[in-house]
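Sequence in, structure out. Go.
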Amino acid sequence: MKKRKTVLEKAPPAFLRRACKRRASQFNSLLAWGDGHSPSYRIALNMGVQKEIAYELGWEVKEIIPADYWTFEICKEGGRPFRSLTSWKQDDHATYRAAFDNGWHKEIAAELGWKVQEQRCGGYWNYDTIKAEAAKFSGLYSWAKGEPNSYRQALKKKNQKQIAKELGWGFQDQKPNGYWVEKTCKREASKHSPTTWKKAHTASYRKAAENGWKDKIILELWGAPAKAPKAEEIIVRVETQPKTKIRRRKAP
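Output:
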């Protein structure tokens, strides 16, 4: 029994080539095309037209280089135009792959002044190791930017608040946009006093001040704040205060 031909096998080669080129035009290199849409890439590869399509689309087509071609200096020169291992890997995969296969990529990154984060094994992270990394920073934001691996582990284990508290950082829950309205600001302010509200929860205090709710909230929660009289007012009150006459009664 003969095997039936698929629709693609029945299609004329010219039609297949146009279809492959149309799909390839959505990408910017042979590598991206192969990763992004492997069916059309395999068809072009089987037809032997993948390089022709690449040239027509203006892509740079690199010839196959023998394995003994790569040296440390060649790989380093390949990485020099970039600023990180990630950008090097994305934009010049050939030199990055050679450096990675030979174990040179971290050394090259160090010589080029790139920051390389050390990969930790799955069982490395616990409360003490996470806190030790966090202690190198001054707050949650700088920690998340400077050491995202340990910060993500803290989020996963839900102990970032406890670590922030032990390190003496001010921690406030991040609220979604639009959360702070007059009602929510008042509810947060009610947990504090008029003198401690600003320091205890700057987000709600600042939002209330920006929208003109601050004085209203203070008045409703604690009454109008008593203003201390000025020195001139005290002197005037003393000078203008009427003297009280003392009447003495005779003893019966």
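Check: The two ends are 145 Å apart (CA to CA). Residues 7-56 form one domain.
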